[in-house]
Task: inverse folding
């Protein structure tokens, strides 16, 4: 990649960011699409978010991704926030305009595309989402946007699940999401009453993330037996304990690498007003898989 005086600069702000593979995604997409742009990581401490966004505007940076822990706080310093991102309460993509940065959330699209490409239909689905953190919010809004019929959020602190349920239900205009404690996952009768059987199980916590690869937020076999498929938003390790349990129960399970790819593609398309081809997406995905495999060696 040749960096010139005309090269448009994009990047990622968060803390930490050194481990991110977003530069691989965006720089490879730029090369495939023949665009004069580069993407780099900017570590930004929590108190420095306003100055970082202001500095990015002053320096002519054309767009930014935002990762933890800034997805919520960055909203306060933006010129405009997309209505869906505002309802979610989290922004992961900043698009430059004449008046400043507009904030979007592409995690919603990333999750939907992951499900679609994995052969999992979200329309009319019943889902059980484990966890009530920032990732869970994006997953629940994606499920609601794509037409899921019922969503149960199971979390150790039920009040946190209730806050997400209220936000999604207010946005959807109906009682779609049901909050519950983690005990619901070990009570097959209650879970069936709330979610039915054959539900999509989504693991949206950091439990099982490398190096804690033997941990799983749910250990009751009935939870996996009564599901139809599983998605774990973690992508390191390649196969989490949650996924292993799902497969042992005879159901398909995928990790979150495709979600990461397609939230990145959605950001890229917002910035560049282009459409990424499936061929280019497949090549980038293969490179991501290789990068993650190399990191595990």
Result:
């Amino acid at each position: 990649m040749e960096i010139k005086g005309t090269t448009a600069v994009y990047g990622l702000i968060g803390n930490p960011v050194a481990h991110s593979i977003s530069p691989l995604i965006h720089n490879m997409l730029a090369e495939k699409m023949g665009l004069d742009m580069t993407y780099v990581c900017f570590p930004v401490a929590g108190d420095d978010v306003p100055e970082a966004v202001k500095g990015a505007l002053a320096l002519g940076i054309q767009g930014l991704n935002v990762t933890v822990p800034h997805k919520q706080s960055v909203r306060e310093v933006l010129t405009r926030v997309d209505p869906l991102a505002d309802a979610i309460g989290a922004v992961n993509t900043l698009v430059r305009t004449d008046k400043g940065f507009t904030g979007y959330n592409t995690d919603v699209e990333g999750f939907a595309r992951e499900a679609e490409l994995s052969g999992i239909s979200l329309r009319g689905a019943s889902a059980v989402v484990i966890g009530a953190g920032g990732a869970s919010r994006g997953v629940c809004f994606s499920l609601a946007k794509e037409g899921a019929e019922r969503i149960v959020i199971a979390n150790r602190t039920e009040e946190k699940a209730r806050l997400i349920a209220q936000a999604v239900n207010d946005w959807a205009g109906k009682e779609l999401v049901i909050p519950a404690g983690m005990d619901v996952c070990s009570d097959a009768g209650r879970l069936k009453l709330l979610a039915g059987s054959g539900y999509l199980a989504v693991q949206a916590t950091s439990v099982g993330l490398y190096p804690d690869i033997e941990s799983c937020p749910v250990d009751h076999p009935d939870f996996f037996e009564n599901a139809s498929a599983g998605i774990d938003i973690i992508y390191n390790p390649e196969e989490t304990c949650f996924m292993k349990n799902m497969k042992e129960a005879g159901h398909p399970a995928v990790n979150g690498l495709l979600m990461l790819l397609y939230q990145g593609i959605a950001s890229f398309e917002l910035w560049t007003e282009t459409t990424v081809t499936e061929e280019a997406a497949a090549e980038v995905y293969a490179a991501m898989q290789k990068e993650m495999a190399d990191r595990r060696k």
Remarks:
- The chain has a mean pLDDT of 96.
- The chain has eleven helices and twelve strands.
